[in-house]
Amino acid sequence: MNIGQSVILGVVEGLTEFLPVSSTGHLLIAEHLLGLPMKTQNEKDALIGFTAVIQSGAIFAAVLYFLKDIVALVRAFVGGVASAEGRATKDFRFALAILVGSLPIAVVGLALKNVIKTIDEQLISVAFGLILFSAVLVIAEAKASQDRPERSITVRDGLLIGLAQCIALVPGVSRSGATISAGLLRGLDRLSATRLSFLLGIPALLGAGLLGLKDATSNTTGTTATAVATLVSFVVGYASIAFLLRFVAGHKITAFVPYRLLVGLGVVIAVAVNG
User: Fold this and answer.
1) Predicted confidence (pLDDT) at residue 38 exceeds the cutoff of 80
2) CA 198, CA 6: separation in Å to the nearest integer?
């Protein structure tokens, strides 16, 4: 992989990680369009690892963007562990919801690691994920009451939304799309569901990045290319977070459905034409 290709992939990751359009799916599409080698198992493993690592660039952007919130939540959690009074605060409940919500994807991701690798190699799975999961976004918005603010978030919310995050292991589904939709179905307002989605993604994707580091820095992708793509995804990801938080304040997530369907249909046609 050359530096130009790594920059393109970093931009794709940064733009799509926090939008409900599937960053993993878009990276797989971009890798095919760039003609990157994926014939041997080592090459496939390297690209899957590369994807996991550069996602951590966008997640570090989320850490920076939400740094004050994260510090407050960590303090609240420590305070809650130390006293009953601390456990009664909304920040402690929010922190506990994130902690509990991060467990399902850690368990499922490790247990199904080899299965996920196989799915990630199939471009057609991206098309199915983009097209079929679009219906979930529509249903979530249709049923959303949005009568629950962030202070009402419970551990049960964290667990259920964390389980929804596991669905995003299928490329094309979208981690943010799955978690925001789950939040809406739990009655959270759109902004609270989005913030919870971003914060839940931090431990999940940082863990995936660490696991993929060895494969990503192999001779196929290279340490320099991986570092460049991660830096680019960090910069672009920060801007993407700021955009989406402003966007969801006045728009439904179904605004992304036409794009998902268009890309999904395009992939189906491309796969059919090229065999």
Assistant:
1) no
2) 24
